[in-house]
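Data's thin. Show one?
=====
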Amino acid sequence: MMEVALPRSWKEQFTFAAAMREEDILHREKLARFAARQQQLTNEQRLASQKRDGEMRAMVEAAMATPARIADFGVKLDTYETKTVEALMENQEAMEKVRQNLDDMLGKAHVLPDGRRVFKTEDGESVYDEHGQKLNSEAIDPSGIDDRKPKWEAFKGATSERTRLEGERQGLLDYQAKLDDARDRLGKDGLTDAELTEMEADLRNAMPEAVRAKVEPDKPKAEAAPIMPSIPDGMETMMRQTGLGPSPMAGPR
């Protein structure tokens, strides 16, 4: 005969439901403790990793620059200084040509009664004075200026080039000062490998385009590679011995 399941009494149902809730609570508490433990392990691992990274950086930064690296950097400084001087000389020559061109155009420009030199545009519609101020037709009729006089576009282009050359010269002089500072630091004791790397990267990043074009004449601007920190001679072996560096790659089996 088939057994018939008798309905539970309300007390039995209450006891069963309470047991299920207690089991669910215990399960959730176990999950919460497990998640907390995992988070604690993750935090400990992160702190340990940060500690190892800090110790490795301290070791690298404290390492003195080798004589070979200092000598190599000195050669680079010689090159940078030479190319900067060349760029300054070329800038000066270009500036003299621009100033001469401006003086010639000012000497040939149309002169107003008040002494201002003015220039008509190529289309013959507008007139500007030597300071870039546009004049209205009441001040002067464009048709009253001889077409053989220098045009505004040529004069404006020359003034823009003069401004560009002035900015370039100031940048070259600032860079020359940075080279002098680097040369002074190179001649002092206690130069670390990290300091040398930082100086080299700073000089490369601050290098004016006029100098970079001479230092790297065949390399496109976008290919100028950044200077990456290097590990001093023997440092990699010491890092492995202390457990701070990567393990040697296993050879073929």
Notes: The helical segments are 10-62, 67-108, 152-186, 193-206, 209-215, 235-241. Strands lie at 110-111, 117-120, 127-129, 134-135.
